[in-house]
Each structure stands twice: as C-alpha cells, then as structure tokens.
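Blinded run. Sample ID left blank on purpose so nobody reads anything into the name before looking at the predicted structure. Input follows.
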Amino acid sequence: MDSTKFAQLISTIVLSAALLSLGGCKSDKAAKAVDSLPATTAVLVQPVTRVTTSTLIAVSGALEADKTSPLGFLVPGRVNQVLVEEGGKVTKGMLLATIEPQDYQNRLDMAEAAVLRAKDAYQRYEPLYKQGAFAQKNLIELKANLAEVTAASNVARKALRDTRLYAPLSGIVSSKSIEIGQMVSAQSPAFTVVKTDLIYARVAVPETEIDQVTLGKSAQVSFAALQGRSFTGRVSMIGAVADERTRTYPVKIELANPNLLLRPGMIVQAEIESDRPLQLLTVPGVAIVRDADNLPYVFVADSASKTAHRRRVVPGVAHGEGIAIRSGLNPEDAVIISGQHKLNDGTPITTGQAAGEAKL
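Blinded prediction complete.
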C-alpha cells in the first residue's frame, strides 16, 4: 500500500472513533437528563369540609352524686353487726348493720302483755255496761287504757325494727362511721350512701355566657382521671344566682352512669352547646399526621404546582366523621388522605383513580 492510501485509511479510522465517542456522550447526557426528572407520588386528596354547628362554651367543675343519704340508727344501742364496708355497693332494702335487740324485744313483750290485760278488762266489762251494771265513765277509762297500751306496743315494735339499719336506695357506701361493739346514740352517723347510676357534672359558667345556655342542651364532658375519655350529657339545671366572688352561675349536666365508672368528686372539663352558630373546618382523622415532636400537621395538595405542602394545624374536637381544625387550614384547601407518609414538603404528586377524586 502506498503512503497516500495509508494516510487516508488512518484518517477514516480516527474520524469513526471520534463519531462513536460523541454519540456515547450524547447517550449518557440523555440518560442523566431522564434520571434527573422529579418522581411523583400517587396520593388521594379530599377538600376541607365546612360545617355549621353551635358555639361551644368551655367550662370546668366536678362530679356530684344524684342523691346523698346520711344514715344512722333511730334508737341507741351497741352495734353487733356491720355487713358492708366503705366503697361497697348496696341495693335498696339491703341490711347494713344491726344493734343488740334484746332490750327492745323485752320492752315489746311487756307492752304486748299490757295490751292483753287491757283488752281482757275491756271485753269483760263491756257486756256489764250494756246491761246497765257498769258505769260509762269506768268503761271509757278501760277503753282509753287499751288504746294507750296498744300505742305503747306499736312504739316498742317499731323500736325493735329500728335495731336493723337498711339501705334506703341503691348506690355506693361513701363513708362508714361505726364498728362492731361500738355504742351509738340515736341518729348518730353510721353510713353515707350515694346514688350514682345517674350523676351530675356541676360546672361554673361565666355571667357573660350564661345567656347562651339553655335546659336540655347537649354537652361533652371529659375526665383527666379516665385518660381524657368523654361522655355526652345534657344540661338539667341552670342556677338563678351568681357566685358573688367568681361571678359564675352553677350549671348541672346530667350523665348516665350505668357501670358506675364515674365517681363523685372527679374533675371534669365540659363543652356545652350554645345557640350561637359556629363555622368549622373539618378533615378526616387519617389526614392528620405527627412529627418526631408529636406536633400535628397535614399535607395540602397544590393544584397549580402539583406538589404537596406540609401545613401545621391545631386539631379540635371530633365532629361527625371528621376532626375540627382550629387553625392552619383555609376553606379552599384540599388535604391528602392517603400516601402522605411518603411525602416531604414540596414533593410532586398525582392523585389516584379513587371515585370522586380529580387528578391533579
């Protein structure tokens, strides 16, 4: 091969290598450009719900029993039985304690003997009076004596019954003041029984809000002692006179307590419905997530940029199937209810094909 042809061959090989190298660089740049495109996350969104409800009046107070019954013997004596302890449950008519009955039994026996004598005398002399052989005055005296001893017999019988102390209502023994062998006087405290199957939250409503409280209105009552558990009640009493020191009015909220879980003296926080309307924004509970500091937030879908934005919120109480949001959202916002745990602030998103959802 001459020198001219050899030079042409070398040029061809160099040009081919250069073209291959240039093509490889373009392919790498194209691949990198594809890789650098932002990935999107499929999510579901739901518009914030606007709800009109009643303004809630926040108050606090404590529980009190439906009825409180202090109990004591009506006759004096020595206690010989105590059948219940403090904190025990009792039913109406249940025997609680007794005192020694022998002295009262003896008095009843003597009174009944006197009744027999007086009745016998009256029955023997009444026929003689009818025959005119016995003075009317004497018969009246016999009749009066029979009435007196009969009354004395009834008193003795009642005193014997009063040596046994029964529960006048069903409830819980809140206090016990007697022990076996103790001498008690008539009407001295023995037990206190509280009726709590129905119980009341007694709260204090400021005078500036008392005009918004009406009988029968619903109220949510929560208890720190029960890990914040809440119960629904209704307003059953509104006080007529304000406390001179606090300028608050007493209000009672009636609560059912069939399992006796609620106890007198528990501290309560209550929210009473008023007649004043209130606009709420609510979101599904699943939309709310918490960060490492346990602070609540939601992700809001931005339809213009097709991205998700993290938004701090202040949740309120449950309302229907949603959670009221006190601050952090606007009525036109749409929150992400599925897929939010895979998001960061500014993550590109597309919505899934769930019924009723529009794709961003």
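Unblinding after everyone has recorded impressions. The mean pLDDT is 87.
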